[in-house]
Amino acid sequence: MRIMGLDFGSKTVGVALSDPLLITAQGLEIIRRKEENKLRQTLARIEEIIVENQVEEIVLGLPKNMNDTEGERVSLTMEFKEKLERRTGLPVHMWDERLTTVAADKAIMEAGIRRENRKDYVDMIAATLILQGFLDKRAMER
User: Under DSSP, is residue 34 helix (H, G, I), strand (E, B) or coil?
Assistant: First the structure.
């Protein structure tokens, strides 16, 4: 069994997977689309990853504002959650993703990745941080 972590953005979805023991999260890929509303290919790729990796649960980052309010991105993310649940039949857990992009940017800078290449990694690293936070919380509750 594995758990998938997703960072849903306007034109990308960062993807991470847990190890089979549900201890660590690893970045897998970034799914890109040309238009924000075009999700069919994105959902199809997510389904492929689910089948290939025996994913049984999904964790989706919830992009709340720093003051704990919910903006437009939250409603778009919740619509994406519903589409994921309908299409995959898997449970989708929401995870507060505040500061994950900031932490991802910091990790990328510390890794010495050139500025022009950072956008190629940030969503995947954010998905990894979302999933790792979920795995850590789940481990503490057991």
Answer: coil
